[in-house]
Amino acid sequence: MCNVFRTFALVILLGISCSESQAQAAPNFLIILTDDQGYGDVSINGARDVQTPHIDRIGREGMVFTSMRANATVCSPSRAALMTGRYADRVGVPGLVRTAPANNWGYFKPGVPTLADELNRAGYYTGHIGKWNLGLESPNLPNERGFAFFHGFLGDMMDSYTTHLRQGNNYLRLNQETVEAEGHATDIFTDWAIDFLRQRATEKDRPFFLYLAYNAPHFPIEPPAEWLEKTKKRLPDADPARVANIALVEHLDFGIGRVLAALDDLGLARNTLIAFTSDNGGSLPHAASNLPWRDGKQSHYDGGLRVPFFIRWPEKIAPSSRSDYAGLSFDLFPTFLELAGITPSDPEELDAISLVPILNGGEIETPRQLYFVRREGGRRYGGKSYEALIRGDWKLLQNDPYSPLELYNLKNDPGETKDLARKAPKVFNEMSDLLSRHIQRGGSVPWEKSASTPKKTP
Question: Mean pLDDT, to the nearest integer, of 84-91?
Answer without folding.
Answer: 98
